[in-house]
Amino acid sequence: MDKIEKFKSMEKILRELEDLKNSETAVIKKIGQIETENMNLNIQELEKSIATIYDGAYKNLENIEGLHTSFVETVSDFKEKNNITDEMLLEIREA
């Protein structure tokens, strides 16, 4: 795999990590909606289980965000070390 192909794959992973982050955020939002609905019902079992699920989802989101931040640096370093310019990428994407 040449350096441009590798870089393109790295960019794809970044997009997928961003998508994963958005998906996990949506899960957390959905959990919040369930918690809100349960305020009227006051079902203790549901409240306890949802709290546990929320904690896990929030930890996942933190891990995803950390990985994304770290991988952004990895991709940036790779781009710099391999002298990949925006012009090179533009030419390849247009081809």
What composes the largest sheet?
none
Derived from helix and strand composition plus strand pairing, the structural class reads: mainly alpha
- Strand fraction equals under 5%
Q: Measure the end-to-end span.
A: 18 Å
The low-confidence parts are: none
In total, the number of strands is 0
Counting DSSP H or I runs of 4 or more residues, the number of helices is 3
Q: Helicity, in percent?
A: over 70%
Structural features, described:
The chain is mainly α and 95 residues long. The chain is built from three helices and no strands. It has helices at 3-41, 44-81, 86-94. α1 (3-41) runs antiparallel to α2. The chain is elongated and about 60 Å long.
Write the layout of secondary structure elements.
Elements: H1 3-41, H2 44-81, H3 86-94
Helix pairs in contact: 1-2
List keywords for this structure.
91% helix; elongated; mainly alpha; 95 residues; 0% strand
Task: Summarize this entry quickly.
The chain has helices spanning 3-41, 44-81, 86-94.
